[in-house]
Amino acid sequence: MLLTVLWGFLLAIFLLPQTISVPLFLGLAIGSSLFLALLLFPFLKKAYVNITLWQFRYLLKQETKWPRDITLYINENGIERNSLHNNVNKRLQVAWDAIERVSGDETNHYLYVEARETIVVPKQNQMLSETEQSKINYLLQQNLNITL
After folding, report:
1. Is the pLDDT reported for residue 25 higher than 90?
2. In terms of Cα–Cα distance, which of 46, 28, 31, 36 is closest to 3?
3. E strand or H helix that includes residue 88
4. pLDDT single digits (tens) 30-50
5. Predicted model pTM
């Protein structure tokens, strides 16, 4: 909105004749800039969301940390997560007892290890066979009391 007011003010300064008095000139410039902002308000309200999404998409494209290849190994002792990024392999091993909290939505289980560390386990994965998926579900049910 402020940019619209500024553009309206600058447009009024260039379009209004310079021969009128200064108070009238400033009043017309401010009034026309506010009128332009109010006139374009519905468009700006819709455009704001699109512009913000465009900015976030641009920033995410510039971010090189994500997405990265992540492999989960789930066994009786806990979960091991390996992530590969720029030829650096980050490995995290978590025992079942170290998982502080569990939540989920329609597609994923979220296992909170620390305040800043979460392991996301998909509920269904097309790359796994049905027996592998059932074994993962059994381990999650047995160790975390997740109802599936």
Report:
1. no
2. 36
3. strand 88-95
4. 888 888 888 888 887 788 888
5. 0.54
What is the arrangement of strands in the sheet containing 108-114, beginning at the earlier edge strand?
101-104, 108-114, 117-122
């592998």: which residue's tokens? 132
Instruction: Report pLDDT for 16.
Output: 80
The rounded Cα 44 to chain-centroid distance in angstroms is 22
Residue found under tokens 């006139």: 39
Closest to 13 measured CA to CA, from 44, 39, 22: 22
CB count in 10 Å sphere of residue 54: 11
Higher pLDDT, 88 or 82: 82
SS3 per residue for 45-82: HHHHHHHHHHHHHHHHHHCCCCCCEEEEEECCCEEEEE
Total residue count of the chain as it appears in this document: 148
Average pLDDT over all residues of the chain:
85
d(CA 104, CA 109): 4
Q: Quick one: which H or E segment has residue 33? A: helix 22-39
With contact defined as beta carbons under 8 Å apart, do 41 and 70 qualify?
Answer: no
